[in-house]
Amino acid sequence: MALEERVRELAEEVQPPDEGAVVRARERHLALTKPPGSLGRLEEIGARLAGMVGEVPPPVPENPAVVICAGDHGVLARGVSPWPQEVTAAMVGNFCAGGAAANAIARSVGARVSVLDVGVASELERHPLLRAAKKRAGTDDLSRGPAMGREDAARAVMSGAGIAGELIESGVDLLVPGDMGIANTTPAAALISAFTGRSPEETTGRGTGIDDETFELKVRVVDEALKLHEPDPSDPLGVLAALGGLEHAAIAGLILTSAVYGVPVVLDGVVSNSAALVARALAPDCVGYAIAGHLSVEPGAEAALEQLGLEPILDLRMRLGEGTGGLLAVPVVQAAARVLGEMATMKEMGIG
Amino acid sequence: MALEERVRELAEEVQPPDEGAVVRARERHLALTKPPGSLGRLEEIGARLAGMVGEVPPPVPENPAVVICAGDHGVLARGVSPWPQEVTAAMVGNFCAGGAAANAIARSVGARVSVLDVGVASELERHPLLRAAKKRAGTDDLSRGPAMGREDAARAVMSGAGIAGELIESGVDLLVPGDMGIANTTPAAALISAFTGRSPEETTGRGTGIDDETFELKVRVVDEALKLHEPDPSDPLGVLAALGGLEHAAIAGLILTSAVYGVPVVLDGVVSNSAALVARALAPDCVGYAIAGHLSVEPGAEAALEQLGLEPILDLRMRLGEGTGGLLAVPVVQAAARVLGEMATMKEMGIG
Q1: What percent of chain B stands above pLDDT 90?
Q2: Residue of B13, B322, B342, B348 marked catalytic
C-alpha cells in the first residue's frame, strides 16, 4: 500500500490554477494594441498559462523538455502490431543517439530530451539521457488478465513523477510527455474506453499503420479486455493496472507532478491523452495545467480530448508519438506568453 | 508601361519547384526511423520545402523575416471599419518600437521585422526598421472608382519585390508577409471574389470586429465595387488597380520574388491570401513556394486557400494580420526541414 499511498498524496497536492490570474490576463489582453479577441485561441492559451504559474504576464517558458517514457506490452502477443518488440529498445537507442523524430523536433524548438525506461522488455545500455526505472520488463497481456499489479502501476506513476520533479527542480519550465512502446496504442484505446465510456470501435485506431484484419483484431482485443476487467473509473489505479501500460502510468505521474509545481504540460497524442485521463481521475484539477499540443489521427485521441475539455493546437494528421506533436506546439505556447508580456498597450501608444 | 513591364518580367522569371527533389524527399521520408507517413502533413511540408530549394534534405530556414506592408484605403470613407485611419500610422510606430503582436511573436520564433510604407496616408517618422516606398497616400475608394492606377499597382508590386530581394540577398531564407492598413479586409474580400468567383457574402468578414450593420454595409460595398469594375481575372494588374490595396500589391510582389529565389513564403491571413491570388494570376508557379501558415477567421481566407490549393498549418481563430499567423507557423516549417535532415534511417539503426 505504500506506493499507492504516495500516488494518492501526490494527487492531493494538486491545486487548481489561479483563476484570478486568468481573469487578469484576459483583462490585460483587452488593453493591448490589437482589436479585442483578434489573436483568437492564442489569447486563451496565454490566459491559461497565467493561471498555471499564477503570474500576469506569465513568464515565457524558455526551458522546455520532452520526457520519452518507454515500455513494452504483453498484448503484443495477440498480434495487434506488425512491429517486433525489439523496436522499442532500438528506438530508445535512437533517442539516445539523437536520430529520432523527437530529437530533431526537440532541437528545432529548443527542448531537451530525456528517456525514461519504465518497462522496456530487454536490457538497455546505459546512457546519459536514459533514466532506468524499470521494475518489470513490460506488462502482461491485458486481454487475458491484468496488465500489471496495482503496486507496479503506482511505482510507474511515481517514476514519471520523479523525473518530472527533478527536471523542474533543474529549471525546466514546460514539459512534453512522450511515449515509445510497440503496441502501446492498444492500452491507450482501452484506457480511453474505460474513462469515457466510448466503445472500442470509437477509441481504437490503426496506431503506426495496420491493415484491416489487424485492426479488427485490435478492436476485438480491446473489447475483450474491457469485458474481462469491467474497469471502474472511480478506481484509477485499478483501471491503470488492469488495462494500462507502464509508460501510460509514468506519463500520468509526470502530469500530476507538473500540476503540483504549476508547470504547463503540452500533451502529445493518444498515449498522452489516455494518461491524462488517468491523471484526471486521480486529481481532476491537474487538467488545468495541460495543453493539448496536437490531435492525433487515432480516434481515441479526439474522444479523450473531448472528455478532458481540451482543444488541440495543431492537427497535422500525425500518429508517431514520442512527444513529436507536443513538441511542435511548444513555440505557440511560448508566443502566447510573450504576447502577454511584451506587447504595448493602447494607452501607451495613444490609440483608441 | 515600364513598371507593368517589370512586373511581367518578374512573373516570367518564376520557375516551378523542383519536382525531382520533392520525390527524393518523399523517398527519404520512407527510409527514416518512423512508420511511413506517421508524421502526417509535416512530411509533405518537408518534401515541398525540398522542392522549393531544390535540395534533399532542404536546409533548415534559420533566418526568417516578416515584412509588414502598410497602406491606407479610400474605401474607409464608406464606414467599413470602426477604426480611424490614423491607427495605421500609429501601428507602424508600434511595429518600429517593437510593441505589436507581430514583434512579440517574431521575437518568439526568431524572425526579424521590417516595415514597408507602401501607402500610409500620413507622413511617417524615419526609423531603421521602416522602408519608405510611398508614391501615394493610400488608395481611392474602390467602390466609386479604381482604387489606384495600373502604374501605382505595378509600382507597389515592385516595392514588395524589392524589399524581398534585398532581405533574401542579405541572408533571409524564409519570408512571412504581414499587413497593416485600416479597412484592408475590404479590398481583400473584393480581390478574393474577383479571382474565385465567390459572392461578396462568401468572401467578406468582420475584419478586426464589426457589428451587424457595418458588416452588411461592407458586403454591399464589396458588391458595388465588383459590379462597378467587372474585374477580369486574366488581367491581374487591372484587378489589383481596380480593387486592391497598396499592401496587397506589395505582398504579391514579395511572393513573386521569393518564388524567383526559391525561398519559402509562409502566408498569413486573408490579406496575404488575397495577394497570393494576385501573384498566382501573374505567375501560377509561384504558389509552389507558398505555405499557408494559418486559417484566418475571415471567410475569404478559406475561399482563397481553397483556390490556391493550400492547407493551413494552424487554425487558432486569429484575425489580426500583421503576419502574426504566418510567424506562428514558422517553427513547424523549420521542424519539417530538420526532420528530413537529421533523422537516422531504419538501415542505420538496424530496424526493419
Answers
A1: 97
A2: B322
Residue A165 has pLDDT above 70, yes or no: yes
Closest CA to A244 of A281, A294, A291, A192: A192
Angle at B100 between CA B250 and CA A349, to 5 degrees: 110
Q: How many CA atoms lie within 13 A of B293 on its CB side?
A: 32
3-class secondary-structure state, position A54: coil
Q: Is B202 a catalytic residue?
A: no
The CATH code of the domain at B2-59+338-342 is 1.10.1610.10
How many helices (H) and strands (E) are present in chain B, helices listed first? 15, 6
To the nearest whole angstrom, how far is the Cα of B102 from the nearest Cα of chain A? Answer: 9
User: For residue A311, what are the contacts with CB-CB under 8 A and spacing of at least 6?
Assistant: A41, A292, A305
> Of chain A residues 31-70, which have a CB less than 8 A from chain B?
32-42, 60
Give the model confidence (pLDDT) of B262-286 as tens digits.
999 999 999 999 999 999 999 999 9
Residues of B in contact with A28 (CB under 8 A): none
Grid coordinates of B166: 534585398
Distances (CA, A) of A127 to A96, A97, A98, A124, B64: 7, 9, 12, 9, 35
Architecture of domain A64-332: 3-Layer(aba) Sandwich (3.40)
Q: What residues does each domain of chain B span?
A: 2-59+338-342, 64-332
The minimal CB distance from A99 to the residues B33, B208, B327 is found for B33
Alpha-carbon distances of B220 from A230, B189, B204, B208, rounded to whole Å: 61, 12, 10, 18
Checking ipTM against 0.95, whether it exceeds it is yes
Taking the C-alpha atoms of B106, B112, B116 and B120 in order, what is their torsion angle to the nearest 10 degrees? 30
For residues B231 and B92, is the Cβ–Cβ distance under 8 A? Answer: no
